[in-house]
Specification:
Helices cover 45% and strands 25% of the residues. The protein is an alpha/beta fold and 168 residues long. Strands 3-2-1-4-5 form a five-stranded mixed β-sheet. The radius of gyration is 17 Å and the shape is globular.
């Protein structure tokens, strides 16, 4: 299911369960509604967490990552209110042809900006996962983020800990 969703997203489909259900229906005999339900079940499965899936995701993306001159990681935070509850997600994604493919994320239980500790929490598993892949040895990693993350402390930590440059 994960690889099928990634393929649908890379084909330029919108990130909406109905559109992804339509995309999956083309490749199977199942109805759009059945595929939408499969996607919902997959995404709400408690055993599927970014901690467990980061390395397999990197392996699934091998063909894409080996074609890149350098691996660009993007860090972003998004929040919204749904049913009077704040949903605040901090994500690290790999940039590929103008798309951000999420590799790791955390859901914060509050509204507002994230902290340096949160940034390290999402960056560490992704960077370490990428660096343990022998087939990526010698490929540079670069972290980009918007103004929320523009702190010299983050750039210094990335350089000292992982020898990675950043554009913040």
């Amino acid at each position: 299911m994960l690889s099928a969703l990634i393929v649908c997203l890379l084909e330029g489909n919108k990130v909406h369960i109905a559109r992804l259900g339509e995309c999956l229906a083309v490749d199977s005999d199942a109805s759009v509604m059945a595929n939408m339900q499969r996607i919902r079940r997959f995404l709400s499965n408690e055993r599927i967490s970014p901690t467990v899936t980061v390395v397999p995701l990197i392996c699934l993306m091998r063909l894409l990552l080996t074609k890149l001159p350098e691996i660009v990681l993007t860090m972003d935070r998004t929040n919204w209110e749904k049913r009077r509850k704040y949903i605040n997600i901090l994500t690290v994604a790999v940039s590929y042809k103008g798309r951000a493919i999420p590799l790791f994320w955390i859901v914060l239980d509050r509204n507002g900006n994230s902290s340096f500790e949160h940034w390290k929490q999402v960056l560490t598993p992704v960077i370490e996962g990428l660096q343990q892949m022998e087939w990526l040895s010698g490929k540079s990693i670069h972290v980009t983020a918007d103004r929320e993350f523009a702190r010299p402390k983050l750039a210094e930590w990335l350089k000292k800990t992982y020898d990675i440059d950043a554009t913040l």
